[in-house]
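Notebook entry, structure prediction.
Reason for the run: the old model in the group folder had no record of what sequence produced it. Starting over properly, with the input documented here first.
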Amino acid sequence: MHRWLSPQTLAIFRKDGRELLRDRRAIFVNLVLPMLLYPVLLLFALQVTQLTQLQPRDKPRVGVVSAPTGLHERLHQAAAGRLPRDVDAAVRSLDLAKPATAVAFEVVDLGTDSTQLGQWAQQLAASVTPSAKVAESLKVAAVTSLRARNLVQALILPDPNCPLPAPTTATSACKLLLLQDGANSDLMETDGLVDRAVQRWRRDVIEDRLRGHRIDVAVLNPLTAHTIGVATTAEAVRTHAAPMLPFIVLVLAVAAAMAPAIDLLAGERDRGTLETLLAMPVRRRDIVIGKLLVVIAAATVAVVLNLLSLGLTAALLANQLTALGGDSVMQGIFAVGLPALALALVMLLPVIALVSAAAVALSAYAQSAKEAQNYLTPLMLVVTFAGMVAVIPSARPSLALDLIPVSGTLLALREALQSAQVPWLHLAVATVANAVAALVLVGWCSKMFDKEHFRYPRLVRAGWGRWAKWRRGQASPDGPEALLVFAVVVLLMTLGGGFLLDAPAWLQATLPMLLFIAAPALGHAWLGAYSLSRDFGLRLPTLRWLVVALALVPLAVAVSLSLGWLQQQVVDVQSLRQAGEAVDKIVGALDATGGLPLQLLCLAVLPGICEELLCRGTLLTGIGRSLGRGWAVLLSALLFALLHQSPLRLVPQAVLGVGLALLTLRSGSLVPPMVVHAGHNALLIVAQTQSWIPDE
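New structure, fully documented this time:
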């Protein structure tokens, strides 16, 4: 293979880098201005908040009907932020809020003016609920009454004598009705305070009754709980910042890569300087890599500078908002440590490279700078949504999610920042997935430079696949198309597998192969108007290659068993056993249902056909068209191994994938690798069934 960093590549990198640095206005807008905006916007937000708090406004009104003196007192105390802290455990956490510096709401005694309001509330809260039509009319009448009195909510006690000390006989609990205007924006300010006041008054009533029965009030507090935080402030800040830090870096990288990518490709095309560069005796790959390195460098520098500015802004915020902990929070931010930040930046470098490669490819595909901006705007949206996965609290790294570019890296990085142990396996798989996608995009962009529509962009494009108007589709799919099909397969396997958990074992084994693997590959070929025989090699080979394929089956099994045994000697596989438990259950169920023939059909024949259509058909052909046969063999084999989502089978499947890819290229047909693949699986199943080899 040719060197990726040739002298011509470095010369183009220096040339474009100098041109980018000469544009002082662009540097100021893309690098300096964002750093200045963060603290300025923060100070602006603080000033607006202070001005908002100083604006005169009417206090929310809370009405009470037939409320005793004790409830009145507690409501006034809650409004003024003077509610005692010796409340029961159910609301103790609410009392930790900062006391109000002014009266939060006004308590209004409605007296006898609210008889009808109380009746409506009792009908709505009755054990026998009215019909939907009657209930709706009662609600309309109640909310109209609340708004006529300018009330946010009203507390109604139907029986004023109920809270009195109860007699020795058992009585039913008192009923307190709360009518709320959910459409009133002030409800959020009063709801929590009113609840605390009601809970404190409820405790007062309980204590009065206990004293009436000469029972010590201490029985209400049989247990006192004290929460002691033992983690350092740095660890706590790092854990809470873990979901947002990678996402922020991702958004910054996309924004920073867009401007130089547009300028270095679509911009040069508009200025007419790209034609001069293409006329020079330089390989197209060198041009692409040189420009890509400039975009990656610009995006990385912008991310680092923006992170520094965000860190200083966070420290300023910690000083200004003393309610957040003041110095302790600031110390925690700075005590997160350079190792954590360095890990975040290093692990995100492949993501930055992938985003930069996508920006360069789309900018090269565009006919003008304006069209490039239109293409890169959806790229920002797609990457942002992919990064949102890291913000989902319940999301955890998995081998399936690791294969999704951007999302897998951000999830693994969040896990590394939140846990004591770094998930190196997930980080490695996600990094490889991003690197593969970036390489394919670079290869696609290099091939694009040789196409006629790139050198003459004003020519009318003929469309793609079945939408082509004046010609047939392309001779074969390219790398981005192949990766897109693979991404669809992974997405279908991740989301669709949950719908088959309760299905019979034979459906769990066959439907994913047919619907999630074979169908996307065949659908892509149909939509692209590609020929399965000419473009993907789905044709009968010569008899010689069928004999060679049958002879290679024992060799493939021997290599897989040897690599599996070697892997067990090097790696502790006991911790990885759980990944294969689901497959073992399906195998056992198939054996109980149809015996060995059903196992061979579901686990040997179908995978041999469906997986070869995708991996040696779509992936090998598409990646080979963008990067060449060498990279196509390696990357398609790696994706083939990752598709099985099992660390135990990663190395054997990757080596098997290399052999199957070479066999496909030499024979020119998909049938020989299908025979080897199906025979390999079948021989392993028979050997394990007959106990020729252990179940390991």
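Summary: Residues 87-101, 322-337 have pLDDT under 50 and may be disordered.
The old model has been moved to the deprecated folder.
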